[in-house]
Amino acid sequence: MEQIEPARSGHVVIGVDTHKHIHVAAVMDSIGGILATLTIATDTAGFRQLLEWADGFGKIIAFGVEGTGSYGAGLTSFVRRHGYKVIEVSRPDRRLRRLNGKSDSLDAENAARAVLAGFATAVPKTADGVVEMIRQLKVAHDTAVKDRTGAMVTLKAMLVHATEDLRRETARKTQKMIARHCAALRPRGLNTPEDANRHALRSIAKRWIALNEEIKELEAQIEQLVLQRAPHLLDEFGIGVDTAAEILIVAGDNPERIRSEAAFAKLAGISPVPTGSGMTSGKHRINHGGHRQLNAAIYRTVIVRMRFHEPTIAYVARRTAEGKSKRDIIRCLKRYVIREVYHLVKTDPRTGEIAS
């Protein structure tokens, strides 16, 4: 009996499971299922091999790529430059992995299925402009701030073991004054624990001062880039350079990928999550997901406005009189702020037009 070949549409989706040294791809026909898999190196030659291989199966609808912001960033950029559509695919949840097992080929197949089924629809960030520059500087800035905080905590802990005179001289001083005082210490030798303490204090204080200068330099660079990309953001009450940077990082260099302010609110974890079931329909809870750094930045903006912004103060008074709790009012204000900045982020600073 003649074997019947499975039907083929000629339209395929490529799913890619990304890793540091290799990527595993699976090609899926829109009606014929998985056709083949391929393992490539994570370099230009490997990316070119993937495109040539995928083109042999038919018209490519899209590439579904895991980790477009990490291990898949290079592949995503390469595929886009060659005119193909890229969809960001989330990692499979643990329930599916328990049921179906785990392998690179299976992950690549799941990525292709997610795109074909319409479960994965997110457009990845292009990461090729000013916002990507801000993100990289922000990483350096945040780690320097963390290290500076740790240095000061250690410095104050070491001061507990210092001589009485030194403890008295540094009492009730600011962090900068403590660091400068300890950095100016001149240890006489290294013969006693007191001598070692002064050496340690001097070393840690110099580290704090160096980190403080590094942070100032990075903040100036970030501010310059924020003013270049979205100067209008800094005109809004309660939004400083740090908050504006977080907003831009979440939106990316291609903010048109965010379809609505509701989608932007969800990205920030500011949209309510429905929890209704049966007789309790219509109930919602706080969204604990989203970008927590942006959520915290919007929260700080709201707190500043509640203290110093007259329209916000009036709003809080009115809602309090209506019986709303402070937490509920803050949630409402966070949504107002995210709606406000959404339109500012999508405005092109060169033309003043909304990106679409």
Automatic annotation (TrEMBL):
It comes from the Bacteria. PANTHER family: TRANSPOSASE FOR INSERTION SEQUENCE ELEMENT IS1111A, TRANSPOSASE FOR INSERTION SEQUENCE ELEMENT IS1547. Transmembrane segments: none annotated. This is IS110 family transposase. The lineage of its organism: Bacteria, Bacillati, Actinomycetota, Actinomycetes, Micrococcales. Keywords: Coiled coil. One of its GO terms (molecular function) is DNA binding. Residues 14-160 form the Transposase IS110-like N-terminal domain. Residues 201-228 form a coiled coil. InterPro entries: Transp_IS110-like_N, Transpos_IS110, Transposase_20. It comes from Candidatus Agrococcus pullicola. GO terms for biological process: DNA transposition. The keyword Coiled coil applies. Residues 237-315 form the Transposase IS116/IS110/IS902 C-terminal domain.
